[in-house]
From TrEMBL, chains A, B:
It comes from the Bacteria. SUPFAM superfamilies: PLP-dependent transferases. The keyword Transferase applies. This is GntR family transcriptional regulator. Homodimer. Signal peptide: none annotated. GO terms for biological process: alpha-amino acid metabolic process. The lineage of its organism: Bacteria, Bacillati, Actinomycetota, Actinomycetes, Pseudonocardiales.
């Protein structure tokens, strides 16, 4: 459909992005490969994982608290007693037993679900990838918070979808920004396929969508005929013990993505999608062509764990460890960071989103940080359009509090040096900042 | 590119198929969902899995011979001693240890490989899906044997690729048929993205590509600039003990797909792709957006199994069980089937490909077979174009020899009844037979 030129500069105008995507050359490979590039974070993992580097970049859950001996016994028993089933192919949708238990887990967030509408996937990343597969043709538009989860941006790029970011504030996605974006896209003749949102303890922004905004956002999307994809890997990891009602608890049409990677064990790669029946049938077919079926063994391990272990206490134990680390990071930021920095105070999850003084380019600074033996994820990795060069993500999930403090101290040194250079030679020319909807304020400055 | 009308009826003319694909309506979902339909085999699994039904339809490996107690101890030890690593995220490419061991396994087929070129996937189905993702734009053409693996056809459909079948004979893919197909496509201005081939103990045809044809087929593809994707899940399951040299052993540009589903345990979902470096980099990125990483735990279990167990003897044990079952099936076919049926004698793998007398439609007969408590996979499921209604696939991998004999007896009864009806009322109008390249002879009648 032709796009009328907007009468005023429109932050949501994506006609240029479309042209750029269409132009990409790929030789003997599919056009979609042009959009498949290594994320800054992943590209960085190799260096950042050297022991002398304090990595505040990754999102690896802290598994130290897992009762390995008990698990060893349970898993061994599973192989001995049910190995013929556990080591065999299973159904593409997942085992009925685990789908029942997943409904129990989701009930904690106010979700009333039928196990027949649950599809077990190889981590929720696979659900995200397949949901994009069944919704998006090349050029289709997806709405996502700005910033958004790097793995989601990767899947959207792999299916040649165009991403329009909608800014958040300290209370999550801003309903008026969502309306503005949908209005602008409507003027361009575009109905986005879905809104991708992480309502709780956002990755990377650390914020949580205010409960009173949840139904409003659902109503806005419904009124524009836009589906909602709710990604909720951190929902049970709130430091206050509060569990927020899922968007899905208000609206059965919401596509809900969940995972055991943060509440149990990421190395098992067990996640799921809860979807309306019409989506489920397509999702199961897509899952079949993607992997035939998720590993039966891993599903039975999670089932057994949920059945035989006090998994709620285990989640509480995890959460306490994360809160201790968050506190260590916040204290270190207060103590060491130079003036002009701002950050949010996450009340759950893994991440602090930091805004650095104007003029500092977090992407350009990253190699110098790694040289100083600290790694972070620069903000641009969390935007589809190059925005985010004044932001960075700090993860407190994995290192010990002592290492976190040391890492922040090193980061402060690097930032200080950048600022000294700027004072001496003036603010350097910025990396050209591309459009990202309205200039998204960092969550704490709204 | 415009397709000139062929001067003579051309079995490889795909212009009509292209138009059909483009026309499909999909509402709010992606166009690719129009091609995502439940395969006849999968649709059948529910009924066929009732205990009173002898299922000769599925391809489930026989795990009865696995030493579960030993495995239980090994897996338990793994969790107790390395649980912090095994239950954590890993790299998208797979663990270095397993990639090294995979190269050892492939050496049995004459493959000289660098572990850096191996990408571990969630079963080889995931490798197949991602290879299609990085090679195929909508409308691109893929060559595949006729018949071909139903899971491959599913992935090709999911990426809106068009499949052109190339007929086999008793010695596998026929080089001249491959030349003819490539010539015809060249006249249509089309260069296929790749040839997808299963050289050993073919699923579903049961045939093996003659060694003297292997380099010839590689040369033909090279001369037309067509990549080769070699899918080899059954290569080590030869009844004579012969291990055939892989296509990859002759040509480092071949994309090779392997799996532990048939040599160890399908429920772990551990497969791999061995690819040239330029493909590898794209494959790893595609794998990241598909699942982030394959399950670390499952990879470490396979590593430990290969390291601590006599896995070659285990494969020999599996193979002997399959040979016994093949013999039971062949004997039962000889004893019970009515005249006019023909089938191949597989010297490895899981499958017998059966051609029924002219006039019998295996797809139409399937419900009557299930009523008679025997299930098979009708031939049309193994073609992208509706061909195969005179064929069906019988799997001997899973049931006991006694059950196989009983299943074939029941199948013979159903076939006999169909033939009686035909004798009484004449040959019914066939399901319209669509084009599938030349009318592929069943492997044993060539």
């Amino acid at each position: 459909m032709p796009v009328p030129p907007p009468t005023v500069p429109d932050p949501y105008d994506i006609s240029t992005a479309a042209a750029a995507a269409a132009a990409a050359p790929t030789g003997r490979f599919a056009r979609r490969t042009a959009g498949m590039t290594a994320s800054e974070i992943r590209a960085l993992f190799a260096v950042a994982s050297r022991p002398e580097v304090v990595s505040l970049a990754g999102g690896m859950p802290n598994l130290a608290a897992l009762p390995l001996d008990t698990l060893a016994a349970e898993v061994g028993q599973l192989v001995a007693s049910e190995g013929q089933t556990a080591l065999q192919y299973g159904s593409a949708q997942g085992t009925p037993a685990l789908r029942e238990q997943i409904c129990e887990v989701m009930r904690l967030e106010g979700i009333d679900a039928d196990p027949n509408d649950v599809v077990v996937t190889v981590g929720s990343q696979m659900a995200l990838d397949l949901i994009t597969r069944i919704y998006c043709d090349p050029g289709d538009v997806v709405l996502a918070e700005g910033p958004s989860y790097v793995g989601a941006l990767g899947s959207f790029a792999a299916y040649q979808a165009r991403v329009v970011h909608v800014a958040m504030d300290a209370h999550g996605l801003v309903p008026q920004n969502l309306r503005d974006a949908l209005e602008s896209l409507a003027r361009q003749g575009i109905t986005p396929k879905f809104l991708y949102t992480i309502p709780n303890f956002h990755n990377p922004a650390g914020v949580t969508l205010a409960v009173e905004r949840r139904t409003e956002i659902l109503e806005i999307c419904a009124s524009y005929g836009v589906a909602v994809v709710e990604d909720n890997p951190y929902g049970l990891l709130g430091f206050s013990g509060t569990v927020y009602p899922a968007l899905r608890s208000f609206d059965r049409d919401v596509v809900y993505l969940g995972s055991f990677s943060k509440t149990f064990a990421s190395g098992l790669r067990v996640g799921w999608a809860l979807v309306p029946p019409a989506v489920r049938d397509r999702l199961v077919l897509a899952a079949e062509s993607a992997t035939l079926c998720p590993p039966t063994f891993n599903q039975m391990i999670v089932s057994r764990y949920l059945q035989t272990q006090d998994w709620r206490s285990q989640v509480k134990t995890f959460t306490e460890a994360y809160r201790e680390r968050r506190d260590a990071m916040l204290a270190a930021l207060e103590t060491h960071l130079p003036p002009g920095c701002s950050w949010n105070v996450p009340d759950g999850g893994f991440y602090v989103w930091l805004t650095v003084p104007e003029g500092v380019d977090t992407k350009a600074m990253l190699p110098r940080a790694v040289t100083a033996r600290v790694a972070y994820a620069s903000g641009t990795g969390f935007y589809a359009d190059g925005f985010g060069s004044s932001q960075l993500r700090l993860s407190y999930c994995y290192p010990t509090p002592e290492r976190i403090e040391e890492g922040v101290r090193r980061l402060a040194g690097v930032l200080g040096a950048e600022l000294d250079v700027m004072r001496t030679f003036g603010v350097p020319a910025r990396t050209p900042r591309l459009r990202s909807g309205p200039d998204a304020p960092s969550p704490d400055t709204a």
